[in-house]
Design a protein that fits this description.
Structural class: alpha/beta
Low-confidence stretches: none
Order of helices and strands: HEHEHEHEHEHEEHEHEHHEEHHHH
Number of strands: 11
Radius of gyration: 18 Å
Strand content: 5-15%
Shape: globular
Number of helices: 14
Distance between the termini: 22 Å
Bound molecules: ligand TUI
Mean pLDDT: 96
Strand order of the largest sheet: 1-9-8-6-5-4-3-2
Largest sheet: 8 strands, parallel
Length: about 325
């Protein structure tokens, strides 16, 4: 399992934890890094001082490499980029935009830069400006999504690039990881599965929603605003759909969605908050320590290959 991606990032297993806003704090990131994978702090809309504190907390909880995920739609994106440079964060992932302008500063301090992409075009543009790898994220994933599925996007991004491709979206166990490698990925990014972990600080209602969710429990809202987001269907999404049908403006819709991830993830309001989890939630049926989640995935990989070799004997 220790492949080129592991060498690049200094980790034991080619598994990254999704840098989820309001959910992926130091506790989760450090636990994932201590389990031999790459833990990632979700900067979300954090102000710089809050992110710096989260980074210091992570450095107190693990000596292993970890990352910070910068959400490029954050109003603090310039300041938090400055913080990750000053704190010499070893790995920086980015989401919901094009990190092109920040790459020189990050490369300057030797950070590995790994943007999430939802299209081949963006993946090629970012390879040209020197990113170290890309996370090709399918629309199965929770939160802000593109329009292409993981199964379709990953092999096309793999064929278009010569740098490592990490698959994300709908991966929650060893089968998804083996499938991603079959598609040409060198690693996987896992979000929803890690939300249902002991160390994740999301509200118990949020975690409970992951356990109760099935494969059809999520919907994509906000297609008309240009910021499509996959969330669990609830009272908020029904209100949102009503507004969208009645021709509300993108600004009005964005205003309805603003701040709702926090009230779900931190305050536990899973009816009127945004529960941003992916379609793989239907596979997740228990809350486990991060170490157990990682070990289960890694230990199941040989069994997946046995099943592949021996038909459905095993
Ligand atoms: O072509 C370009 O210039 C940029 O195009 C892109 C289009 C999409 C993406 C993309 C898709 N998925 C990701 C990584 N995942 C995410 O970023 N997931 C997120 N979940 C909640 C977030 S906060 C938010 C953001 C928008 C609206 C409401 N809330 S961000 N990035 C990245 C780049």
């Amino acid at each position: 399992l220790n492949n080129e991606l592991c060498q690049l990032l200094g980790i034991d297993y080619p598994i990254l934890q999704g840098g989820m806003a309001w959910v992926a704090t130091a506790e989760l990131a450090a636990a994932v890094s201590n389990a031999g994978s790459l833990g990632v702090i979700g900067a979300g809309h954090m102000p710089p001082a809050v992110l710096r504190e989260e980074i210091h907390k992570t450095k107190r909880l693990t000596n292993k490499p970890f990352g910070v995920n910068i959400m490029l739609m954050s109003p603090f994106v310039k300041e938090v980029m400055q913080v990750v440079v000053e704190e010499r964060v070893p790995v920086v992932t980015t989401g919901a935009g094009n990190p092109g302008e920040y790459i020189p500063a990050l490369k300057e301090i030797g950070s590995k830069v790994i943007p999430v992409v939802a299209s081949v075009a963006l993946a090629k543009r970012l390879e040209r400006v020197g990113v170290d790898a890309v996370i090709a994220e399918g629309m199965e994933s929770g939160g802000h999504v593109g329009e292409v599925t993981t199964m379709s996007l990953v092999p096309q991004v793999v064929d278009a690039l010569s740098i490592p491709v990490i698959a994300a979206g709908g991966i929650g166990d060893a089968r998804g990881m083996v499938a991603a490698f079959a598609l040409g990925a060198k690693g996987v990014q896992i979000g929803t599965r890690f939300v249902a972990s002991v160390e994740c600080i999301a509200h118990p209602n949020y975690k409970e929603t992951v356990l109760r969710a099935k494969e059809r429990s999520t919907v994509i809202t906000g297609l008309s605003t240009g910021h499509p987001v996959r969330v669990i269907a609830n009272k908020l999404t029904r209100e949102f759909a009503e507004l969208e049908r009645s021709g509300a403006s993108p600004e009005e819709l964005d205003r309805l969605g603003a701040g709702k991830l926090k009230i779900a993830a931190r305050d536990g309001d899973v009816e009127y908050g945004s529960v941003m989890i992916g379609q793989v939630a239907g596979l997740v049926d228990s809350i486990k320590p991060v170490k157990e989640i990682v070990e289960e995935i890694v230990n199941d990989i040989p069994k997946v290959f046995e099943r592949l070799r021996g038909g459905n004997k095993a």
